[in-house]
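Slide 14.
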Amino acid sequence: VRGGAAVQITKFTVHPVVRAEHLLYHPYLVFMRAVSVDGKDFHIFKIRDDGSGTAEDLTQTDDGVWNDIAGMSYNGTYVYFRSNNYIHSKTDVWRYDVGQNTTEDIFPNDKDYQLLAWSRDQTRLLMEEPHSGELLFIDAASTEHIPLETPAIPFRQAMMDPLNNELYTLDSAGNLRARELATGKKRDLLTG
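Slide 15: predicted structure.
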């Protein structure tokens, strides 16, 4: 902000804010912080971006549940987060609807897939099967699984470009590759 001074928004003396996102087109911040004495239970809160008012807990869950902000839709309509609310050993994908001020479990995850990214149009989740390392899209509406790639060498990281035309993978040997999502054509960007 031009000419503006920093303003303290939250005043937590125990368990500080871990991650925060400003809601697009709305005067609020969404943030996560620990709420338990041992610092292991994380909840997601909403507060006005000027620090006025009190923080609203968007994830009122029992002990032993952590909630982790995964990101926001490109147009600011939704905030996505991971939560082990139902089965503590599995992580479901949840969506907070900014306009409706509601949360819903949009991907009950009984196989322990890891959420990596959302497609720009918010219809597909980029997921990793943790045992094989396989990357796949899961259709958010039908839950159809669309296999993309199974690594010869385990992936360290995978993500899509901002326009969702390409999938980038970095394997544990340091090889960075791009894959066109429309054609499946691959190219090396950097070799370990």
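Speaker note: The first strand starts at residue 17 and ends at 22.
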